Amino acid sequence: MEKLSRQPCEACRKGAPTVSDAEIALFKPEVPEWKIIERDGIMQLERAFTFPDFQQALAFTNRVGELAETAGHHPALLTEWGKVTVTWWSHKIKGLHRNDFILAARTDEVAK
Ligand SMILES: C[C@H](O)[C@H](O)[C@H]1CNC2=NC(N)=NC(=O)C2=N1
């Protein structure tokens, strides 16, 4: 069997299910700081993290990049002085999958 970290991300497969309203109600309390937004008709999870300077914002960006590579699932990252905006959604299904909530929770862990 392939290493787990090498296995394809289920959320990144065409036809994977987007989350239902019931699932959103279940998962959202686990990531209370994240906003569910709609951009270009696509539901996304977004959170801005603040830092005292650019270097720490950049270091956090790279840690999130590593977790994304490990998961095979990639966020949009906007790095600014003292701020990183992280946005998760599943490109292949143009919406939110359970996996996006899992990765939002992991992003919170990386920020601790
Ligand atoms: C081949 C590769 O696994 C896919 O293209 C992955 C890469 N990372 C991805 N990340 C996200 N967020 N959504 C995707 O659909 C996606 N697809």
UniProtKB/TrEMBL annotation:
Keyword field: Lyase
Keyword check for Lyase: yes
EC main group: lyase
Stored Pfam families: Pterin_4a
Family the entry assigns: Belongs to the pterin-4-alpha-carbinolamine dehydratase family.
PANTHER family associated with the record: PTERIN-4-ALPHA-CARBINOLAMINE DEHYDRATASE-RELATED (PTHR42805)
Record's protein name: Putative pterin-4-alpha-carbinolamine dehydratase
Species, as recorded: Halomonas mongoliensis
